[in-house]
Amino acid sequence: MSPGRLLGALALAGLILIPLLPLGPAREYFLHVLIQVMIWGFVGTAWSLMGRFGLTSLGHGAFLGIGAYGTVLLWNFWRVTPWVGLPVAMAGAVVLAAVLGYPCFRFRVVGHYFALVTLALGEVIRLILTAERNVTGGSLGMTLARTEGSSLWALQFAAKAVWYYVALGVWLLGLLVWARLDRSMTRRAMEAIGEDEAAAAAVGIRVTRFKLGITLASAGLTAVGGMLYAQYLTYLNPETVSGVEISLRIVFAAIVGGMYSLLGPTLGTALTTALSEYLRVAFGVRFIGLAETIYGLCLILFIVFLPDGIWGGIGRLWRRWRGALVVAPAPR
């Protein structure tokens, strides 16, 4: 076994054992933070499927909101299990992504124009969720109808440890999809498209097909993250699962951690979650908007000085160090 695989196996074993450790009085809170990191790390990984190839979406809150509200509404009104509601919500997110993506890719709406189109999409979904207050509860939000105790059918669990393992499984699924894509021909095709669409089309690459496929996959996975987030918190409103703020949160975490690497979005999510929790505990409601201001400043700094994110920067330093060892003259 290679050192990398051995390190990965040890890290996975450590993650599996965390709920079994004696963590003391802060155990429930610690697991709560880790669950959120894995859920949002999964969402960030789903976004990076597009972002790493230059498809900058600022509207992934729309897909997150469809996944969250779709499953909750089906359960609350018709008692449709999330095991059925999730595929329905994913289909809705995929159809919306297709309706948005196909004309954009067909007519080569790229760069900041594509980002603005997706930004508008996220806001439209948020406004719809807010306006339909008779169904969604509007800006007051809605609460998931609870069952007595834990229920696999309703995907509701009382124990934080169970939710931890559910979130861990979904997070690992996201990493698997990312890794499979990274080793596939789709990656090479998308990289060629990102360099020069005209040249890629000239050599036979079906530009619209590849760009639309990666967009649909990202939207569907983001809907899964929205469902899991809603089922875990049991409460949602348009501001927490849709709109510009949530979309920017996803983008910020992926950029900070490094959207070009497997664990980059998760690392960025862990850092932003830790920052958010620290600011909440340290300042409470005394400085409204402080977290968003710090996020904005950090985003500017990372874009300027670490465009590959923290994980990418670490990898670059590691390669330089190894290169220096190789070219260094042998001691006499």
Task: Summarize the topology.
Blueprint: H1 3-17, H2 27-51, H3 60-78, H4 82-106, H5 111-131, H6 133-136, E1 142-143, H7 160-182, H8 185-195, H9 197-202, H10 207-233, E2 235-236, H11 238-241, H12 244-257, H13 264-283, H14 290-305, H15 309-327
Antiparallel strand pairs: 1-2
Helix pairs in contact: 2-7, 2-10, 2-12, 2-13, 3-4, 3-5, 3-10, 4-10, 7-10, 12-13, 12-15
How would you describe the overall organization of this protein?
The longest helix is centred in the middle third of the chain and has 27 residues, at 207-233. The chain contains 15 helices and 2 strands. It is globular. It has a domain at 26-241. Helices cover 75% and strands 1% of the residues. The model has no long low-confidence stretch (mean pLDDT 89). The protein has a two-stranded antiparallel ribbon with strand order 1-2. With 332 residues, the protein is mainly alpha-helical.
The secondary-structure class comes to: mainly alpha
SS elements, strand count:
2
Strand order of the largest sheet: 1-2
Any low-confidence stretches, pLDDT <50, length ≥5?
none
User: Please, what is the average pLDDT?
Assistant: 89
How far is it from the N-terminal to the C-terminal residue, by CA?
34 Å
Report helical residue fraction.
over 70%
Please count the helical segments: 15
For the sheet with most strands, the description reads: 2 strands, antiparallel
Shape, principal axes of CA atoms? globular
Oligomer: single chain
Give the radius of gyration. Answer: 21 Å
Residues in β-strands, percent: under 5%
Order of helices and strands: HHHHHHEHHHHEHHHHH
